[in-house]
Design goal:
Blueprint lengths: L7 H50 L3 H21 L3 H6 L6 H29 L17 H26 L7 H34 L6 E9 L9 E11 L2 E8 L15 H7 L2 H4 L10 H16 L5 E6 L2 H9 L2 E3 L2 E3 L4 H12 L3 H21 L3 H13 L3 E5 L2 H8 L14 E9 L9 E12 L2 E12 L5 H4 L2 H4 L11 E8 L4 E8 L7 E5 L2 E10 L4 E10 L7 E5 L7 E4 L7
Helix pairs in contact: 1-2, 2-4, 4-5, 4-6, 5-6, 6-13, 10-13
Length: 586
């Protein structure tokens, strides 16, 4: 007969399940309470960060320092709340786990950035009055840069590490609201890493590059994006700058006709010759077709030095679109009979001038006048804070490229976005789109691009797909209504109003092109190796209103990586870049 009690084994099982359930309830309650607190702290970080950006932009460093302390407090609290063993245990659960892990990672990144980058930089900046940098009459006080360089170096290292961690968070595996927050945080950290990295580079390089240790000569090459080249545009106006003890002066101006075609081309890399034959080595205006500025920079210096004789310490290449940012700092600009504002300067320099000044020689003179006036205004009348912001924006858009003939400086430059070197795949995988005009006119003012990337598996292999759509948005009657200098008037075999373009797409390091088509059809292409990157080049001819789409799939090392970013030629209007679900073209 039974005494009404459960067997011992069943009693122990019920007791064990009860204990487990109790622990689970307590754990859920624990992470819920701490999660609410962490989310509140991170919301405070986001709110204060927005206010901090405004304070820094206004030069109110006292308010910025106070906000940075508040951000550090809340970020540290969020990190503490999401770093205990119970929280980490929930991070390994299926489905929900990535959300807990993402919150923990975001909190830790925010804590590192606030404590090890934000606060030290602002503490150091308290002794650096932007208004006293000495940007007047072409002179720069170099002493403050040396003072702040160590803090910027530490902050740059912290932000680079934070950027790497942020990029490794799989936002696609989290719930939509958290995914949006992760992407916003990733964008903010990347922007901060770029800006602080550029500032650190400036602090480390400016003293020597601006002649603190002896005079320097630099070639300034201005690129015209209405006729695209790999690094921005065809070289138009060229100038020689002299730097000594922080003072920068414009010594000499020149234009492309001052550099006639070379009978014996400059030596070029195999990849450059494979894509563009020896044209960059013969023609000054084509040197910016070279994809890697560590090759283009010394070639530009050689052309100047061979023509005029001065020893060259470096090359700075900028594009015409950069003038928009600079005029926000300098205010309206007048040169010759023309006046422009930041809202009108790009349209004037890249379109309107060709109707207003039909003679190409006179156009060169106007471009030279504009360049001289802009340089003078930037070094004498621009507000230093606004000028630094304008240069930072342009650097982030890859509209500034710098090469130095001095080995130590060049090593730092080549490792930064300012150096214009081909990217290196590490925490991110890079693909790229290079655009070079062969119309011979200035029709790229009317062109547009969109770039789509997709990653996944095709034919059982990890695959990265890049799709580029190139459009000629010129009016239907462009051939008769636009100036002949703009259309090239058929001089190079392109019907007036049409656009002929070399579009080069390169893939991840080590991957090979497994599928290539244009508008769904196979055609002859040019191929090359850019380092270890397979590059494929199409020649595309479009009449007004026409578009064409190039599709490439890469397989092999580096292909199929979620963290794939697109590098591209700086254009007048940034191309629309999107990520789509992979539909295997093969």
């Amino acid at each position: 007969m039974s005494d009404g009690r459960l067997p011992v084994r069943r009693r122990w099982l019920r007791w064990t399940l009860g204990v487990i359930l109790t622990i689970l309830v307590l754990a859920i309650g624990w992470v819920t309470v701490r999660g609410i607190g962490a989310v509140n702290d991170l919301q405070q970080v986001a709110t204060s960060s927005s206010t901090l950006k405004e304070a820094v932009g206004q030069g109110d460093l006292e308010k910025a320092a106070s906000l940075s302390s508040r951000i550090a407090h809340h970020a540290g609290s969020a990190h503490d709340l999401t770093s205990d063993p119970v929280w980490h245990a929930f991070g390994i659960l299926p489905w929900l786990g990535p959300n807990f892990a993402a919150v923990s990672d975001v909190a830790e990144i925010a804590d590192d950035v606030a404590s090890d980058a934000l606060v030290p930089v602002l503490d150091a900046a308290g002794a650096l009055n932007l208004a006293s940098l000495g940007l007047s009459n072409g002179a720069v006080d170099l002493a403050p840069f040396a003072a702040i360089e160590p803090s910027l170096a530490d902050a740059s290292t912290t932000l680079s590490a934070a950027q790497d961690r942020a990029l490794r968070i799989d936002a696609d595996a989290t719930l939509p609201p958290l995914a949006d927050a992760v992407r916003e945080m990733r964008s903010t950290v990347t922007q901060a890493a770029t800006v602080v990295g550029s500032l650190h580079g400036a602090a480390a390089l400016l003293p020597s590059m601006l002649g603190a240790d002896g005079p320097r000569n630099y070639v300034l090459a201005m690129q015209n994006n209405a006729e695209l080249r790999s690094s921005g545009g065809i070289i138009g106006a060229i100038a020689l700058l002299h730097a000594e003890n922080g003072r920068v002066t414009l010594v000499q101006q020149a234009s492309v006709p001052d550099f006639p075609k070379l009978d014996d081309p400059l030596p070029l890399s195999e990849s450059t010759v494979a894509l563009f034959e020896d044209r960059p080595g013969r023609y000054m205006q084509n040197l910016t077709s070279i994809p890697d500025f560590t090759e283009a920079g010394p070639a530009i210096a050689a052309r100047w030095q061979n023509r005029f004789g001065q020893p060259i310490d470096g090359v700075v290449a900028v594009d015409a679109v950069m003038t928009e940012s600079l005029l926000k700092a300098t205010g309206p600009l007048t040169f010759g009979p023309f006046s422009v504002t930041h809202e009108t300067v790009v349209n004037f320099l890249l379109s309107e001038i060709y109707a207003a000044v039909p003679d190409p020689a006179a156009q060169d003179e106007v471009f030279s006048q504009a360049a001289g006036a802009l340089l003078s205004a930037a070094l004498s009348t621009a507000d230093p804070k606004d000028l630094v912001a304008a240069l930072a924006d342009s650097a982030e858009q890859h509209r500034i490229r710098i090469w130095s003939a001095h080995e130590g400086e060049q090593k730092m430059l080549a490792a930064s976005s300012l150096g214009g070197a081909l990217p290196v795949d590490d925490t991110e995988t890079h693909v790229g789109v290079l655009v070079n005009d062969t119309t011979g006119g200035k029709m790229d003012y009317y062109t547009d691009a969109s770039i789509t990337t997709s990653v996944g598996v095709c034919d059982g292999e990890p695959t990265t797909q890049v799709r580029v759509t190139w459009t000629n948005d010129a009016p239907a009657d462009a051939g008769t209504t636009l100036p002949p200098y703009v259309t090239a008037n058929g001089f190079y075999g392109v019907p007036p109003g049409s656009v002929r373009t070399l579009i080069t797409v390169y893939g991840p390091e080590g991957a090979t092109a497994s599928h290539i088509d244009r508008d769904g059809e196979q055609e002859s292409v040019q191929t090359a190796l850019l380092g270890t990157r397979a590059a494929v080049q199409h020649e595309v001819l479009l009449a007004p209103g026409e578009s064409s789409t190039i599709t490439l799939e890469y397989q092999g090392t580096g292909a199929g990586e979620r963290l794939t970013v697109v590098d591209h030629t700086p254009m007048i209007s940034d191309p629309e870049i999107s990520r789509e679900e992979l539909q295997c073209a093969s």
